[in-house]
Design brief:
5-stranded antiparallel beta sheet, single chain, mainly beta, about 10% helix
Length: about 350
């Protein structure tokens, strides 16, 4: 009995220890038997031939921005902007909204406030290939930090109200990563001035004269889309007469950030275009490499027909290869402005 008393005295809390020690041990054993937490799955990449139908609207004023790797498409109003200011490193080119049937005139240097009349001739627009040297505004700065001082007039398009159609503007020196823009109506003697900031991760900052501010016209980061379907102006040859004329087309343009394409040689089956075959083709970064003429207007039927045998290969700015062919331009109700195409990762 004495020895029992000693043990009880030396370990007075033995029963209490047992009460919490056993449950904790069991919890540790149970935890060791639980499976490891599953990792979040990697984003799935599309596999096989994908079909896409875009909604540009019957007036085709929606720009639709497409990324092939995710089969994603986002629409914006393509008519809301007038000038686009390059945000790409080492570039300061300026584009006009050809989709609104816009033209630009470059005048002399001098005071913008003295420019009051609509020019008779000398109007230009941006070449759809995307070369900055072929833009309507042209070279306005020797180095991106100063301006030659030219005065410009923009014809915003014949569909604009008469009192909003013509705008004069002048480009000032680039300051702190932005563009200085002076502008006003033709009869303004005191033009307004605004700074257009270069946007990180975008190709262009888009400006609206009507709103007097930049607008959200490029919805995705520059590496988050591959092609855009939109209106743009080009020069075509009239069937029958051979006379060239300016035409607002609806087509597909490449992302200017390191995106290329090539049309596959005639009579090549879509199924035969694989990665090895694509690697043998010489690609171009010309923005209208896909363009508008995958569809042709049939004067007899008054409708567009699509040449599904024309096949394109696109190399994206993420160095991914896709093949593409168009299958329709109408929706189920027979309304135009709904490009339908098939594409597949190579």
């Amino acid at each position: 009995m004495a020895s029992s008393g000693k043990i009880a005295t030396r370990f007075p809390n033995f029963a209490v220890v047992n009460q919490w020690l056993i449950p904790v041990t069991m919890l540790i054993m149970l935890a060791s038997c639980e499976p490891e937490e599953a990792l979040y799955p990697a984003p799935k990449q599309i596999q096989g031939i994908q079909t896409k139908v875009l909604d540009m609207g019957e007036d085709r004023n929606r720009d639709v921005w497409v990324q092939f790797s995710t089969n994603n498409a986002i629409s914006t109003d393509g008519s809301v902007w007038d000038l686009g200011f390059s945000c790409l490193p080492g570039r300061w080119d300026i584009v006009i909204n050809n989709g609104n049937d816009a033209y630009v005139f470059r005048g002399d240097t001098g005071s913008l406030s003295r420019m009051f009349t609509i020019p008779v001739g000398g109007w230009k627009y941006d070449h759809p290939g995307g070369n900055p040297d072929s833009s309507g505004v042209g070279s306005w700065s020797p180095d991106g930090s100063s301006s030659f001082g030219y005065c410009y007039v923009l014809d915003r398009g014949m569909n604009q109200p008469a009192d909003e159609r013509y705008v004069k503007f002048k480009l000032g020196r680039v300051e702190n990563g932005g563009y200085m823009l002076s502008y006003g109506n033709l009869d303004d003697s005191a033009p307004r001035q605004v700074k257009i900031s270069r946007l990180s991760g975008k190709n262009y900052a888009y400006f609206s004269f009507l709103r007097g501010d930049t607008v959200h016209a490029e919805p995705l980061k520059q590496d988050g889309w591959d092609v855009v379907f939109r209106k743009y102006k080009t020069n075509i040859i009239e069937t029958g007469t051979g006379i060239p004329y300016d035409y607002v087309a609806v087509g597909c343009l490449l992302n200017p950030l390191n995106t290329q394409c090539v049309e596959v040689p005639d009579n090549t089956p879509f199924e035969s275009v694989n990665k090895t075959f694509a690697a043998s083709l010489i690609m171009s970064g010309r923005l209208d490499g896909i363009g508008y003429d995958w569809k042709l207007f049939d004067r007899l039927s008054g409708k567009y027909t699509v040449n599904y045998k024309r096949i394109f290969v696109i190399r994206t700015n993420r160095d991914e290869l896709f093949k593409l062919r168009f299958t329709d331009y109408y929706n189920d109700l027979g309304q135009r402005g709904y490009p339908k195409f098939e594409f597949e990762r190579l």
